[in-house]
Design a protein that fits this description.
mainly alpha; Four Helix Bundle (Hemerythrin (Met), subunit A); 229 residues
Length: 229
């Protein structure tokens, strides 16, 4: 429906997921109690660009975000340490919850375990594959994003529903892989081209994925906790 035009249309209560609204224009729109999430860049609302305001507010609420855009090797190590510090208490929290809650989806989003499995996939893409140059490197328990047409072709078990202990084991392996990498990385390494990108680009992408999915995961755990109580 790229380029389509809608006039006098009532879309109240509609849900949109995995959509591309690049270049879309909304005029005389009613965005009352609307919620948007995703990649927001260059969005202008009533002549004000919104993305910088969102970024500043997120940094205020989550100061660790400012550490996740390093430009040198020491900064990369600081960034990964911040990611580890984020996830450590969250993993302990998950360990203390009943297993069935970790498989529970909130508002149609990934469950906590699916989120962890997606991050396994992310490490496999950006570190195992791009940075380390491994082949046949996708763990079958990984969860690919929905835009990957045939994850089974990558060796992903699309029907898997593993328990927490199995997911945590694979997740720890991937976390340790990144820890080992960043421990010895140099400034020159970060500028080395790996695949179509620099190593720094790959690590920045990983840090961004880690932070955002931790945000989503804790948000959903809070929702589950409130429902159960």
């Amino acid at each position: 429906m790229a380029g389509a035009e809608f006039r006098n249309v009532d879309l109240s209560g509609a849900r949109f997921q995995n959509i591309n609204l690049s270049g879309a224009q909304f005029r005389e729109a009613m965005l009352v109690n609307a919620r948007l999430s995703g990649l927001i860049d260059g969005l202008v609302v009533n002549d004000i660009e919104v993305a910088p305001l969102i970024d500043a507010e997120l940094n205020r609420r989550h100061p660790e975000r400012t550490k996740l855009r390093p430009r040198d090797a020491d900064g990369v190590r600081v960034a990964w340490s911040a990611i580890e510090d984020l996830w450590a208490p969250t993993m302990q929290r998950a360990h203390d919850l009943p297993e069935e809650l970790l498989h529970q989806r909130v508002d149609g989003e990934w469950s906590f375990l699916e989120t962890l499995r997606h991050l396994v996939f992310v490490v496999d893409v950006w570190v195992s594959g791009n940075v380390l140059g491994q082949s046949n490197h996708f763990n079958p328990l990984g969860v690919a994003p929905t835009f990957v047409a045939d994850p089974a072709a990558l060796g992903i078990d699309v029907d898997a529903d593993p328990p927490f202990y199995k997911v945590a084991t694979v997740r720890d392996e991937r976390m340790n892989m990144v820890s080992d990498l960043v421990a010895g990385v140099t400034d020159d390494d970060l500028q080395r081209t790996v695949g179509e990108h620099t190593m720094l680009y790959c690590l920045l992408t990983l840090f961004n994925e880690e932070w955002h999915h931790h945000w989503y995961a804790t948000r959903d755990l809070d929702s589950i906790d409130n429902t159960e109580s």
